């Protein structure tokens, strides 16, 4: 039922106010009409549903965990990264919200169109670079004076880190992130229209004793082709697919490298025990297999192929002619 349910006392108070003239029915209708009117800002068009925002949050929760593992291994120090917020705002508002001098990485994510941004707070970026160069992880503030070596170190570090996005997005799209640009001034970066809606994922980041934010900007134009994959229905269908455990994958690799005995059966013969005990060198046994018919090739003790015996140089050999199918052990 729409609206709030009034208690009997509130209903009596309203009827009393109308009857005494303190409030007219027209005023009540006017208040009802005013309550139905909501302010809508077309510059802040909400192009993502709450369901889709929840899916994006879930994906980047996983991405944050992958980044934590990657940076902890690369920097050899305590790193904590988690999703602080996920909002949809105009691109212009995102650019205004980042510092005038910061670390901005621009990525293409083929086969999707458009570009996505990764903005790293300078405190975090310098702490990471200091650790990579053998320091204690202290932070500096000289973004505008980055040397070519410092720029290269940062670019390589964040390019490798963003590979984790491929794994995080695997359930909704197969992407191949490519770093295309590195910038320190957001005013020089015009990736999309200022009024275009973007999703901004803010990651709260702690590197040692230094803390800051990493912001990921996903334009609507990039996500538009895969919007249906962000629905709950898609996630429920994806969850039904059983993932193959790592132990099973490793076992399969080892089985493929296992050595097997291969033999060829030229035929069999039935003899009495007395005859068998009297066999000697030079005796001839008659086999139940014609010389012009293919012979069975066994893998272990299981017949798997038919072949034709012959020679390769001075060595005996057998040529595989066909595969034997049938039985419970065959892969169909």
From TrEMBL:
Q: Give the CC-aspect GO terms.
A: bacterial-type flagellum basal body; plasma membrane
Q: Which GO terms describe its biological process?
A: bacterial-type flagellum-dependent swarming motility; positive chemotaxis
Q: Where in the cell is it found?
A: Bacterial flagellum basal body; Cell membrane
Q: Which GO terms describe its molecular function?
A: cytoskeletal motor activity
Q: How does it sit in the membrane?
A: Peripheral membrane protein
Q: Which family does it belong to?
A: Belongs to the FliM family.
Protein's name in the database? Flagellar motor switch protein FliM
């Amino acid at each position: 039922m729409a609206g709030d349910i009034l208690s009997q006392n509130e209903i009596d108070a309203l009827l009393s106010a109308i009857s005494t003239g303190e409030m007219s029915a027209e005023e009540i209708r006017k208040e009802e009409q005013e309550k139905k009117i909501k302010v809508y800002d077309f510059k802040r068009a909400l192009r993502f549903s709450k369901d889709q925002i929840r899916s994006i949050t879930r994906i980047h929760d996983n991405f944050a965990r992958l980044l934590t593992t990657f940076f902890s291994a690369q920097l050899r120090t305590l790193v904590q990264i988690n999703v602080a917020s996920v909002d949809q705002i105009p691109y212009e508002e995102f650019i205004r919200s980042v510092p005038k001098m910061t670390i901005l990485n621009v990525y293409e994510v083929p086969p999707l169109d458009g570009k996505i941004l990764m903005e790293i707070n300078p405190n975090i970026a310098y702490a990471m670079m200091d650790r990579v160069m053998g320091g204690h992880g202290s932070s500096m503030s000289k973004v505008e004076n980055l040397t070519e070596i410092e720029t290269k170190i940062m670019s390589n570090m964040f390019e490798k880190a963003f590979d984790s996005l491929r794994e995080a997005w695997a359930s909704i799209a197969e992407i191949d992130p490519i770093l295309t640009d590195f910038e320190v001034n957001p005013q020089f970066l015009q990736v999309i229209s200022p009024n275009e809606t973007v999703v901004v994922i803010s990651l709260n980041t702690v590197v040692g004793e230094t803390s800051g934010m990493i912001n990921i900007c996903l334009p609507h134009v990039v996500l538009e082709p895969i919007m249906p994959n962000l629905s709950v229905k898609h996630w429920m269908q994806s969850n039904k697919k059983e993932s193959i455990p790592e132990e099973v994958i490793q076992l399969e690799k080892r089985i493929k490298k296992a050595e097997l005995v291969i033999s060829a059966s030229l035929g069999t013969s039935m003899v009495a025990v007395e005859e068998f005990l009297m066999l000697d060198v030079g005796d001839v046994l008659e086999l139940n297999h014609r010389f012009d018919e293919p012979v069975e090739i066994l893998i272990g003790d299981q017949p798997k192929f038919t072949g034709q015996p012959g020679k390769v140089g001075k060595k005996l050999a057998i040529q595989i002619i066909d595969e034997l199918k049938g039985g419970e052990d065959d892969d169909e």
